Amino acid sequence: MSPVPGDTLPCPLAPDDAASGLNRALRRWLGALLRELQPALAATARACQADRYRKHFDHFAHAVFLCYHGLAGSGSLRVSYATFPTAAGLVALAGLTTPHPERLGISFSQLADSSHSRPAALLSGLLPTLVARVRAAGVRPGLAIPAELRVLDSTFLRLALGVAPWLPSTGGKDHPGVRAQVLYAPAFDLVERLVVTDTRSNDVQGFDALLLDDPARLAALAGGTLVVDLGYYSHARFARLRTAGVHFVSRLHAQAALRIEADCPLQIPLPGLDGGRITIQSDQRITLGSPTNRAGAVLPGLRLVTALVAATPRAQRAGAQPTVYRLITDRWDLSAAEVAQLYLWRWEIELFFRWLKHRVKLPIWLGYSRNAVELTVALAMVVHLLLVLAARAVGLTRRTPALLARLRANLSQVPAPTVLAAMQLPLPLWPPAPAPT
């Protein structure tokens, strides 16, 4: 089933009362949320020693500035440094005020150096806190995507060896850069795990780092379904998922060895499933893998679903042709069409990567050292999660480019900490004050 259209917002400059109320809600929400994240930031700062040898520019001031930079979508760190003094409330929250309103309490060189030297774990360590808040808000309304569905994929971010000489150079057609490996929950629009690797690590190794080498994460996904593409294809890793009780859906590798055990009767697909694009051609029980492959595994009792999927109407107008998918899974409780639909929902992570690159502007680097690159990717994920939380706080079903534009337009008017402390914030999902003891 296709996602419902996102909510639209009035123009940020609209003078009506509704637009003004939404602006005030966003300003109050952002300022209060940054204050509430201060203890979590302090904990991650202690764990990674983010304030070591720093007296005048602490971790919280840096985090507030980076959130401003990420939300503002500035073309460079220098532009954000020049415009940050106009956001007086955020400057006060960061503790960077000076007697001169047009100046900050730090120099640009201090700021730029901190992006290289302060550990990227300061922001990546904040992700679990934001993930917990998004999960507590519940799934996105209006979607049929199962809450337990996870998608594993990566996106490539190109860098030049001239500015990032620490990257490996293999020559030929290989381009230098890094990969952001992401475990994504599409029903929540949620980045659950993130690992940044260079070209010396392939996607299968990212599979291990993100999930398989973390017993706690693997146990948390038991009973759920993981959808992967061919870059993560590995019989041995599929066997580990089955052992942990995690279901999987993947395309069948063209060179995979298999034995067909039985042909299953075709079921009538659910009416209206993904607009009738899915036509099941076969549904078979198979044994996957070869016993002579020492690095692989033999997986009996799997399911092979062959489906013809028509292109979307928009793609058809551009000349796209139907695609045949051969999908393997261990899920027998679903119809063949539902298995195909699970794989088609993998497209949600591609839309997410497009959002990061075109709207959040992920490739605008804070620097070119390894730490600065990792900090940039972590900041993009933090900005995305802030936008998801902002959408929920003001009653929208999902984050939109219009919401991002409105939030950018209101950064300069976020209230100062003293004003926020005196405000009542009756916003959805706001945690109540602890009961008196």
Brief write-up:
The chain has 437 residues and is of the alpha+beta class.
Task: Give the DSSP E fraction (strand runs of 2 or more residues).
Answer: 15-25%
Distance between the termini: 49 Å
Q: How would you name the oligomeric state of the polypeptide chains in this document? A: single chain
- Structural class computed from helices and strand pairing: alpha+beta
Order of helices and strands: HHHHHHHHEEEHHEHEEEEHEHHHHH
Number of E-type strands: 9
If helices are DSSP runs of H or I spanning 4 or more residues, what is the number of helices? 17
Largest sheet properties: 9 strands, mixed
- Regions with pLDDT < 50 over 5+ consecutive residues? 1-16, 425-437
Shape: globular
Strand order of the largest sheet: 3-2-1-4-5-9-8-7-6
Average the pLDDT over all residues and give the rounded result: 88
Task: Tell me roughly what share of residues is in helical segments.
Answer: 25-40%
Radius of gyration: 24 Å
Features:
alpha+beta, 9 strands, disordered C terminus
What would you say this structure looks like, in words?
With 437 residues, this protein is an alpha+beta fold. Among the domains are: 17-124 and 368-421, no CATH class; 248-345, no CATH class. The chain is built from 17 helices and nine strands. It has a nine-stranded mixed sheet, with helices on both faces. Strand 2 (177-185) and strand 3 (190-198) form a beta hairpin. Residues 1-16 and 425-437 have low confidence and may be disordered.
